[in-house]
Design goal:
Number of domains: 2
Shape: globular
Strand content: over 45%
Strand order of the largest sheet: 8-9-10-11-12
Helix content: under 10%
Number of strands: 17
Radius of gyration: 20 Å
Structural class: mainly beta
Distance between the termini: 26 Å
Largest sheet: 5 strands, antiparallel
Number of helices: 0
Order of helices and strands: EEEEEEEEEEEEEEEEE
Length: about 210
């Protein structure tokens, strides 16, 4: 299908770093492994298939897999269709339904749910409301009146108030993609009170 060459350029030893690759292909499968050209090791790939167009027979594949490489080193992998790959067990978990999700692993807990604490936090927007850093000790990151991630915001001329993306209520387009390595949410809709502005937002949460 494709050869992927990985180069470490920051001078840091990498262990289990996730690589994202997107490619067009006419191969109709989501079962893919990345084969290390040097060692022959096969690595399970998390794959998401997206149709490009009804007029194009090729699909767009979004592929994620972990690699390990020493500082300044290089690795080459061959992406091949294979049903032999077994999804690994990771610490990445998702709970909840729709936009009301909690995503976590051993390092963090991301809360995308609504809260009745304030009006600004009580919209079904899917924006990050609270983040818990589990490293060393549990550090809670949040805002008192709004969601932790509320930007961007918009304000029309001569108006005293502004609106934000956190004011979305069930955006028209919503996709949730889950796998052992990555959980991604994608949302799209017009900005609250600003129908002339189209917003697209996505989150990537890794194991």
């Amino acid at each position: 299908m494709a050869r992927v060459k990985i180069a470490e350029t920051a001078g840091i030893n990498r262990e289990g770093e996730y690589v994202q690759v997107s490619l067009q292909t006419d191969v109709k499968t989501s079962d893919i492994v990345a084969v290390n050209e040097r060692t022959g090791e096969s690595i399970y790939c998390q794959t998401d298939t997206e149709s490009i167009s009804n007029l194009v027979e090729k699909d767009l594949l979004h592929i994620v897999f972990p690699v390990s490489v020493e500082a300044g080193g290089e690795r080459s992998y061959i992406l091949v269709p294979s049903s032999d790959g077994t999804p690994p067990e990771t610490d990445l978990s998702v709970s909840g339904e729709g936009l009301e999700l909690i995503i976590e692993n051993e390092y963090y807990r991301a809360d995308l749910t609504r809260s009745a604490q304030t009006e600004a936090k009580n919209h079904a927007s899917g924006q990050l409301r609270e983040l818990i850093n589990k490293v060393d000790f549990e550090q809670v990151l949040y805002r008192t009146e709004n969601r932790m991630h509320w930007a961007p915001n918009f304000q029309k001329a001569n108006l005293r108030y502004y609106t934000t993306i956190a004011g979305w209520d069930n955006p028209v387009l919503y996709r949730l993609k889950k796998g052992p390595y990555l959980v991604r949410t994608e949302r799209q809709d017009k900005a609250p009170a600003h129908p002339e502005i189209l917003l697209t937002a996505s989150y990537d949460f890794y194991a």
